[in-house]
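I would like you to sit down with the pair of lines that follows and say whether tokens and residues agree.
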Amino acid sequence: FQMLTSQLPLLQEYFFAAVKDDNETLARAVTRVIAEMAERYVHVLCEPSPDAINMVNLVVSCSAHKDTQIAQMTYQFWYKLLKALKDAPEHRQRREEIFAPGLLRLVPIFATSAAYPEDCDDWSKNEEDEFRNFRMESLFDAVLDVSEIVSPLKCLHALVPVLTQQLEACVSKGGAEWQPVEGSLFIVRVFARHLPHNEESVVASLLGMYARLPEHHRIRQIFTKCIGAFGKWLNGHPQYLGALLDYVVKGLGMPKEQGGLVAAEALQDLCDDCSEHMASPQQLQGMMQIYGNIDSLEASLRDKIVQGLGSILLRIEPQQLTGMLESLVQTPVEMGTTCLARSDKDGAMAQIQKLRTLMKGGHVASDGRQDAESAAQREALGAAWAHCFQRVWPLLEGVIVSHGEDENLMENMCRCIRSAVQIMGLRFRDYLGPFATAAVNAFLKKPLSCILYAVTTVVSAFGRHPEFVQPLTEMIAALSTRTFQVFGSGEAFSNSPDIVTEYFEMLDRANIRFPQVVLTTPLGDNACACAVSSLYTNLEHREALQATLKFIHGLCHRDLSRELVCPFLQAQSAGPCGRGTQARGLTFWNAIFQTLVSKPSFLLETIASVVHDMAHFLPNESREWATAALQQVPETTLEAKHKEDFMRSLQQALASPMENQQRLIMQALRGLFRGVKKPA
């Protein structure tokens, strides 16, 4: 390292000569050498010696090159420097303080790199995409790495004076030179969410610039993104929220590509991060006005706004919530019903989507929050939705009964049911019977995977409660009968991978909720046989295969009771592909080896879990079943040596300590998989 650093003055001379002479070839060559040296000796550079500081400063100079393709050669170094500093946490603060002055020079340099060139309005789509990718990938990561080294707040302090000067110059020229302002705001947006929420000085002055910004669509877009990113800071400083919210809302009237979508996304962020303040009478009135005119906006904007409004509902006082929710659902229910009556499926779908998004907003906003206040808010919102759902259900039932064959309309209806169950919980019980009847009848007429998807949600919500197990079992049994008809031939599995996925995910959820039914009734026997059969077809769909094997794993999962699993695995049932009656555990091993020799390797981890858990319940039988099943695999597919090696490795894995078994089983399966002779 010392020998290389002795050449730094010469490298520095070459680089600055290249910059002065506009010699990009030389600049690129020198930058590559410097960047590779810095990355190679990054752990040495973490010790901030004079040579190390000089080296880092030279990398900073290379990052400042006007050609971004040359500058970004250095970006990987900032990631490696951050990682190396994290590897020595006891020295990190001292070292970062020494590096900070040099690294803070990078912040305005990055802003310059982020700025659009003057001729950007003449760009082709490819040029626009290339620059956007550079900003959102290479540059974004480099800014984030450097800001984490020296702290986002220090970066903001370094950038705001530069941004202030840029804005003054822009305003003095009537907004003509907007590019530097936009570039600096892009850098702010990168680390805005990482700033301390209690910062009291520089953020306020930055956000106060909104009143002086030139009215250019790119400026509006990036500043709107900044406002959304500062949502948590604004939650602690609500005195600034009103004016900035007005700025965001104004952008909703712009075309999607010029800022409308960005404004909707920022509004949703503010609803999520500042829901308490957005629920105040003044802000809520404004949101209700937006909602009243929402059908005039593009669909992508509507979803963002409605979901944000749904999260605000969590903060409404319970005594006001039901009345407000009734007013929110009234229009989409009435319009949706009218659209259905005149067979306007697109119109009905738009209104159902609005209802679903409104429910989803409240569910997403409350999800994961376990404090008492959040629990009370969820309870109040669920009760209000249960009261209002009596107006919503006839619209959804009308879709199932009259348009159950329309896949797009049913997809939206089923997603709405899912959101309703998630937000209402057990209060959905009043609609469980009508939904089951309508869903089964629709599925009998035209099997759609979205119906299975909706039923899975219902099973998740109600399956733990004994009084609902019988009706849920009857619903699943009726759906299973029709599903088995769909899978009447081997090709049917590969032709309907979405139904395979959703059906076995539904059965897996049922097995988790009420395994005593799935493992002891014909429902489980038939579903198990169907799952095994699918593995002997040309089904290659990733999600479908994963769902099938996950269901099989669930039937012998170690969390289940021995009294349920052991008899299930030992029970005699028809073997795969017309084989005679045999133990179900042997059938599982047949399916495991069939999967190994005919399906992709991404399934190995799930297979290892099946093997591990079967052996947990029945270790001796599992070894016998594995031996018998392996003998049935032709030697043209697996040579005897590979079979012997696998059984030896499996025996060793099962004899090892419990914490090592899964890993060793996985190794044994990988070895067997490598020995498979693939067809030419």
In short: Residues 372-403 form the longest helix (32 residues). The chain has a mean pLDDT of 91. The two ends are 53 Å apart (CA to CA).
